[in-house]
Amino acid sequence: MDAPRLAKPRQRTVSGRHEDDRGGAATQRAIPVSLVLLGGASAAVLLRLTARDAVPALAGFYYATPLIVAAAGPALAALTLLRIGRARAAAASLAAAIVLGVIWLGSIYHEAPCVASSDGVQVLFWNVARGAAGWERVAEEIGRFDPDVAGFVEATELGQGVVPERLGLGDRPSFVVPGEILISSRWPIIDGRSHDLGSGRAASARVETPAGPLQVVVVDFDNLPFNLRRKTVQRLTEILDGMTPLPTVIMGDFNTPIDATAFEPLRRRFRHAFELAGRGLLVTWPSPLPVLALDHVWVSVECEVWCVRHPFTVRSDHWPVVATVRGGREVGGGDLEPRVGDSGPRSSAGR
């Protein structure tokens, strides 16, 4: 009877050992990367739920991480974990990303009914990005909205003067802050002034509308990531306090998200127009897929707001803000009862 032969031990090839080494190294890299991505997203959410931009050292991080950006952390972590075979962990990360995305979408979409009024004032604000898309195209877009009162920032190339004719507004009363801001109206503009905000600029003017005077203020905040926006807002409110009490519309590129604590001084006297009567997406930058609400219209308590929209455009990196407002009973008579309808772009016929 022959003795049983023992099986020879299986020899691993050099290439197999190399594959195992690479797999182990990939796992060692993937786990820390995933933890960093998840930790960054968690920090962004925690900051948004607590201090927001009240802590100066963290304000830049807060401004740069809306929930949809925070959702990118677990989404990328899910891909990283899936590559190393951690399917359950990847699924959990992906679920977290989806939840953050859904919450973000719910927070930026508004469905307030648009209401039209024959005596409402159609207001337009737009950062026109120094005409990067071409001044003719920008002017066409402005003509599509046919605003009664309009404010523009970055309204010229660097080092050049603001020219209303470039925007198709040469035949209208205008007030210009050289090199930066333009206020335009189909009605007379008086008492135009420019203001230094420290980390930004502003222009103000009184517009003599048929319903009475309307104070219009256009602002442009600097976009430095660690700029303390609260100081700039405080400076703006001090300027507003010194103005003649009138129904007031403040519009501009604030380079600050709407839920920032920096707006607390402004909220004491003014209301955010989109929060009152917004329809569509709250976000305005960067076009064509905006994730941040940087451009805002605020109104004093005397003003009524019927409809606010942020129309899609690719002729600037900012979407415009279009609002229909009225100063209120103190500044004119007439029927204040709005009628339900669509307050989209209007032609000048019959005005």
* Overall number of strands: 16
Q: Count up the helices.
A: 9
- Rounded mean pLDDT is 87
DSSP helix fraction: 25-40%
Strand order of the largest sheet: 5-6-4-3-15-14
Q: Give, in order, the helices and strands.
A: HHHHHEEEHEEEEEEHEHEHEEEEE
Q: Give the biggest sheet.
A: 6 strands, mixed
Strand portion? 15-25%
Distance between the termini: 115 Å
State the low-pLDDT regions, or none: 329-351
Shape, principal axes of CA atoms: elongated
Rg calculated over all Cα atoms? 27 Å
Structural class: alpha+beta
Describe the structure.
The chain is α+β, with helices and mostly antiparallel strands. It is built from 9 helices and 16 strands. It has a 6-stranded mixed sheet. Strands 7-8-9-10-13-11 form a 6-stranded mixed sheet. It has a two-stranded antiparallel ribbon with strand order 1-12. β3, α6 and β4 form a beta-alpha-beta unit. α1 runs antiparallel to α4 and α4 runs antiparallel to α5. The longest helix has about 35 residues.
Summarize the structure.
This protein has 351 residues and is an alpha+beta fold. Helices cover 33% and strands 25% of the residues.
Keywords:
alpha+beta, 16 strands, 33% helix, disordered C terminus
Give the secondary structure arrangement, pairings included:
Elements: H1 14-49, H2 56-64, H3 67-70, H4 72-83, H5 87-108, E1 109-111, E2 115-116, E3 121-127, H6 135-145, E4 149-153, E5 174-177, E6 181-185, E7 189-196, E8 200-209, E9 212-221, H7 229-241, E10 248-253, H8 264-267, E11 270-272, H9 273-277, E12 279-281, E13 295-300, E14 304-309, E15 321-326, E16 339-340
Parallel strand pairs: 3-4, 9-10
Antiparallel strand pairs: 1-12, 2-16, 3-15, 4-6, 5-6, 7-8, 8-9, 10-13, 11-13, 14-15
Helix pairs in contact: 1-4, 4-5
